[in-house]
Amino acid sequence: PHLPDKNGPPPISPHPLWTTHIQNCPTHHTSTPHKSMPKEKLKLSPNHANTRFAKCSENLVAYYLTQNGWHILARNYRRRSGEIDIIASKNDSPLTLIAFIEVKSRRSPSKLPPQCAVTKRKQSKIIHAALAWISKQGAPQAVYRFDIATITKTRNNVPRIHYFPTAFYPRQEFGW
């Protein structure tokens, strides 16, 4: 993926509410299921904790976007060709800006930053899903871009948001 300069954008310091939100997110903590839950509901996939952390990360990014003047148009927009985590718009005169946002999160340190997980293949899937969304909406007049938001945890278990606007571009074959 297109990466910014060596240091990237300055990290966004988490607001106390964001920290509280992700730490208290009902889908974030692993907990003992309630006795009243049917046994078939108790079966968890091996990646269940990662899935819950990813969902909370998406919630955190959606909150961050709304606090910065964005309007969430869709979440987890799925097509056969791919999925878009968040579709958001912002009215900047004279045109509306629509961002297709991929959220990547890491619970523990990795050699590669999370944004590197958005491979060319993943980008292509996001672009195909975006084209489907645009077509379904009647091709609204807007400026479109593809962003990546990453969530990592600090040593103190505090989430950090890094936002990469215009993280990648559609190839010419998509007609853009």
Query: Strand content of the residues, in percent?
Result: 25-35%
Q: Which value, in Å, is the CA radius of gyration?
A: 17 Å
Number of helices: 4
> What is the helix content?
25-40%
Q: What is the succession of H and E elements? A: HHHEEEHEE
Q: Main sheet, how many strands, which sense, barrel?
A: 5 strands, mixed
Q: Which stretches are poorly predicted, pLDDT < 50 over at least 5 residues?
A: 1-44
Number of strands: 5
Cα shape: globular
Distance between the termini: 18 Å
User: Quick check: average pLDDT?
Assistant: 74
Could you give a short description of this structure?
By secondary structure, the chain is an alpha+beta fold. Helices cover 28% and strands 31% of the residues.
Task: Write up this protein.
This protein has a five-stranded mixed sheet. The protein contains four helices and five strands; from the N terminus they run H-H-H-E-E-E-H-E-E. The chain is 28% helix and 31% strand. The chain has helices spanning 16-24, 39-42, 48-67, 120-136, and strands at 71-79, 82-92, 95-106, 142-153, 159-168. It has 176 residues and is an alpha+beta fold. Mean pLDDT is 74; it is low at 1-44.
Keywords:
five-stranded mixed beta sheet; 5 strands; disordered N terminus; alpha+beta; single chain; 4 helices; globular; 176 residues
Topology, please?
Blueprint: H1 16-24, H2 39-42, H3 48-67, E1 71-79, E2 82-92, E3 95-106, H4 120-136, E4 142-153, E5 159-168
Parallel strand pairs: 3-4
Antiparallel strand pairs: 1-2, 2-3, 4-5
